[in-house]
């Protein structure tokens, strides 16, 4: 792996972002809108005495984590789609750039987007609802890392599908994440799901992250079983997704689809 | 001068089938000598672009081998591609970036030692200096072609694959591009594999042409030699004869 090639692709994306209002909006618009919606709802529930003492913390914490997950996924998929939309993939892959370097650059771009979006929503959540994500010290940090890993795994999966089926599958870049939302126990505990769906929920790392996050909020201590399961599942998913992406790339080369991706 | 007759591309028994049945490239073998401009010609669907893409490891061959600089391309992709470049009007540079941003991105990808100096040197050579601060989407076709060619020379390639570089250019700009290519080949000793449907252009540039038709090599030789062999008045008529199987 050569850092100068990773850096080249990353800088190429940053050139785009620095003067593109729609791209900057994509980082901030959805998180801010969701923060306003869910923030006011939790404020209402709190005033009406409907949610218990930690309702603001739990819902806003879930919201911040959900945004991290969706930003991580979208950043990877959209970074790839930028090259599909501009019919630039061929130019990129006639250079010595490796697929792994290309993927790493999209993951790093995702990290930059997440830091930016995370900073803005953390500040807004504090200013509007006095919600401080750092109240729980470093206990939430490993869960943040875990949710990012799952976001990248989902991003690589949707990218693999787009690579194989072209931009007609690009709706996945924006919509796929919502397929897992009901089963990830984002805003409610897993126990709220019917028994059969709980089995589905427990094979998703996101479920363990959201459950673990709620445990930190409720008890003020780190739940190692939740964290451990989240990381184990993440590594399995990442392994599978890398295998899937390389298989799709190999299939695309076999079918000569790289130039026809649009 | 021992390198003059050295083959830097060796293609052996290359086959590409799509969907297991459609044979787009059918058992072709050829070599390309260092420092020469070779034309790869043929009607639409002859297999030229597929062959070039296999040489760039963008398409996996069904069977056969491609060696560039004596190395198998697929197994030595990084090493081979760092010494090769490609340009085609059908492949865009990111159009939302400024021209200098695009060129410096590709310079970084090739690990060019002094990217800024290299971009400026090529901008001077291709007369695109005033285009560097412009957004790529605002360029004309002729300007884009010159920017694409500048991109293709960033890594000082030993082998340049050009897929119809002058298509959609007006005769004046096409003539300028041809002169630039001849100058590059003369000054830098770059080996060029060139596809085009403009036979006058091929006669002007290429010392040798390889004709492909329906995935097979139907002829191979110097343009004048082929004109004589087929008893036609020029390469355009030879092309028609070969395409129609006359």
Q: What is the fold's blueprint, element by element?
A:
The complex is a heterodimer of chains A (262) and B (246).
Chain A: H1 3-18, H2 21-47, H3 55-85, H4 89-93, H5 99-129, H6 141-165, H7 171-180, H8 195-202, H9 205-219, H10 224-255
Helix pairs in contact in A: 1-5, 2-3, 2-5, 3-5, 3-6, 3-9, 6-7, 6-9, 6-10, 9-10
Chain B: E1 7-18, E2 22-33, E3 37-41, H1 48-55, E4 63-68, E5 71-72, H2 77-81, E6 84-87, H3 99-109, H4 115-125, H5 141-153, E7 159-163, H6 171-188, E8 191-195, H7 199-205, E9 208-213, E10 216-221, H8 223-230, H9 235-243
For the structure shown, list the relevant keywords.
heterodimer, A: 262 residues, mainly alpha, B: 246 residues, alpha/beta, Rossmann fold, six-stranded mixed sheet, four-stranded antiparallel sheet, 9 helices, 37% helix, ABC_2_transport (chain A), cell membrane (chain A)
How would you explain this protein's 3D organization?
The complex is a heterodimer of chains A (about 260) and B (about 250). Chain A is globular, with a radius of gyration of 19 Å. The mean pLDDT of chain A is about 90. Chain A has one domain. With about 260 residues, chain A is mainly α. Chain A is built from 10 helices and no strands. Chain B has 2 domains: about 160 residues, Rossmann fold; about 60 residues, no CATH class. Chain B has about 250 residues and is α/β, with parallel strands linked by helices. Classes of the chains: A mainly alpha (about 260), B alpha/beta (about 250).
Q: What percentage of amino acids of chain B are in beta strands?
A: 25-35%
CATH architecture of the largest domain in chain B: 3-Layer(aba) Sandwich
End-to-end CA span of chain B: 40 Å
Q: Pairing-aware structural class of the strands and helices of chain A? A: mainly alpha
**Count of DSSP E strands of chain A?**
0
Quaternary structure of the protein: heterodimer
């Amino acid at each position: 792996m050569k850092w100068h090639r990773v850096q080249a692709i990353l800088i190429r994306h940053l050139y785009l972002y620095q003067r593109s209002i729609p791209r900057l909006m994509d980082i901030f618009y959805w998180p801010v809108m969701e923060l306003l919606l869910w923030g006011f709802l939790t404020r209402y529930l709190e005033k009406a005495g409907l949610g218990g003492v930690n309702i603001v913390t739990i819902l806003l914490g879930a919201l911040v984590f959900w945004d991290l997950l969706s930003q991580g996924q979208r950043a990877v998929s959209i970074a790839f789609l930028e090259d599909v939309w501009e019919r630039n993939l061929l130019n990129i892959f006639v250079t010595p750039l490796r697929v792994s370097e290309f993927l790493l650059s999209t993951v790093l771009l995702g990290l930059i987007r997440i830091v930016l979006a995370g900073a803005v929503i953390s500040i807004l959540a504090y200013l509007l609802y006095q919600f401080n994500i750092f109240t729980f010290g470093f206990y939430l940090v490993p869960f943040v890392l875990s949710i990012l890993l799952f976001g990248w795994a989902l991003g690589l999966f949707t990218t693999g599908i787009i690579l194989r089926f072209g931009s007609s599958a690009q709706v996945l870049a924006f919509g796929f994440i919502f397929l897992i939302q009901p089963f990830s126990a984002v805003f409610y505990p897993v126990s709220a799901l019917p028994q059969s769906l709980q089995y589905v929920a427990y094979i998703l790392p996101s479920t363990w992250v959201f459950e673990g996050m709620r445990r930190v909020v409720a008890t003020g201590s780190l739940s190692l079983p939740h964290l451990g399961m989240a990381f184990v599942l993440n590594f399995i998913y990442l392994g599978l997704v890398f295998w899937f992406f390389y298989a799709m790339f190999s299939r695309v080369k076999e079918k000569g689809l790289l130039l026809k991706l649009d | 001068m021992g390198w003059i007759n050295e083959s830097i591309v060796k293609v052996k028994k290359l086959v590409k089938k799509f969907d297991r049945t459609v044979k787009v490239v059918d058992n072709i073998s050829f070599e390309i000598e260092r420092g020469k401009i070779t034309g790869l010609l043929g009607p639409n669907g002859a297999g030229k672009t597929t062959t070039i893409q296999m040489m760039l490891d963008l398409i996996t061959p069904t069977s056969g081998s491609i060696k560039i600089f004596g190395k198998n391309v697929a197994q030595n992709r990084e090493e081979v591609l760092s010494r090769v470049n490609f340009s085609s009007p059908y492949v865009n540079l990111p159009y939302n970036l400024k021209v200098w941003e695009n060129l410096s991105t590709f310079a970084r990808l090739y690990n060019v030692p002094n990217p800024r100096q290299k971009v400026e040197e090529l901008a001077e050579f291709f007369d695109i200096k005033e285009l560097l601060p412009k957004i790529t989407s605002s360029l004309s076709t002729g300007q884009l072609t010159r920017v694409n060619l500048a991109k293709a020379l960033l890594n000082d390639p030993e082998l340049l694959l050009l897929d119809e570089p002058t298509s959609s250019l007006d005769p004046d700009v096409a003539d300028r591009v041809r002169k630039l290519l001849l100058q590059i080949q003369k000054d830098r000793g770059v080996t060029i594999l060139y596809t085009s449907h403009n036979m006058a252009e091929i006669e002007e540039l290429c010392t040798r042409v390889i004709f492909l038709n329906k995935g097979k090599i139907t002829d191979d030789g110097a343009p004048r030699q082929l004109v004589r062999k087929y008893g036609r008045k020029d390469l355009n008529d030879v092309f028609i004869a070969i395409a129609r199987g006359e």
